[in-house]
Design a protein that fits this description.
The protein has 188 residues and is α/β, with parallel strands linked by helices. It has seven helices and five strands.
Length: 188
């Protein structure tokens, strides 16, 4: 089966995220102020994209705590609970939540409110992934930087082998360094 769809990137300080979070949204029109207003831009985009692709073929990428690029919200639990509820009503296919686990994590609340498939990401170990899935907090866990640095990540996770150490200074450099030069387990 081939799945075709779209993931709307509403995280990491990009435009949609700037509308969502009150650290950056200083608007005074119907796109600013209240949580409902700040969510409007994302939800209009979701409505437009789902009208083409179908709701089940659309995912939304969120970063509740906005730990970079001067992002953040004064009440991320309220904001992202509202967003999750609105996306549930629209029957969006999945949510991808990028959030480092901490005492103020919003991930479990988002999963509870959304009710559909939720993918967790950000500095997760294989033990974290197993726990989050076992506890019903996430349906899957994504490994971004670790996958860049460890070309045989699934095999290493399955066998408990150590992962390569990522070198973020080499990411997005335009060449092989940092992408295709990390050793596979068989080469270590």
């Amino acid at each position: 089966m081939i799945w075709r769809g779209v993931e709307i990137h509403a995280a990491n300080g990009y435009l949609i995220d700037q509308f969502l979070q009150d650290s950056t949204n200083r608007r005074t029109d119907h796109y600013g102020g209240s949580i409902e207003n700040r969510s409007r831009f994302l939800l209009e985009i979701v409505d437009a994209v789902t009208s083409v692709w179908g709701a089940g073929n659309v995912g939304v990428h969120l970063r509740p705590r906005g730990e970079e690029h001067d992002m953040g919200d004064s009440d991320p639990h309220a904001l992202f609970s509202h967003v999750a509820e609105q996306l549930r009503r629209r029957e969006v296919g999945f949510l991808f939540i990028r959030e480092i686990e901490a005492s103020d994590s919003v991930l479990a609340r988002i999963k509870e409110v959304f009710g559909g498939p939720v993918f967790a990401n950000e500095e997760m170990s294989s033990e974290d992934a197993e726990r989050l899935i076992r506890d019903g907090v996430a349906d899957a866990v994504a490994f971004g930087r670790d996958f860049i640095a460890t070309p045989d990540l699934p095999e290493r996770l399955a066998t408990g082998a150590p992962l390569n150490t990522p070198d973020p200074s080499s990411f997005y450099g335009g060449g092989a360094a940092g992408y295709t030069d990390y050793p596979a387990l068989s080469e270590v």
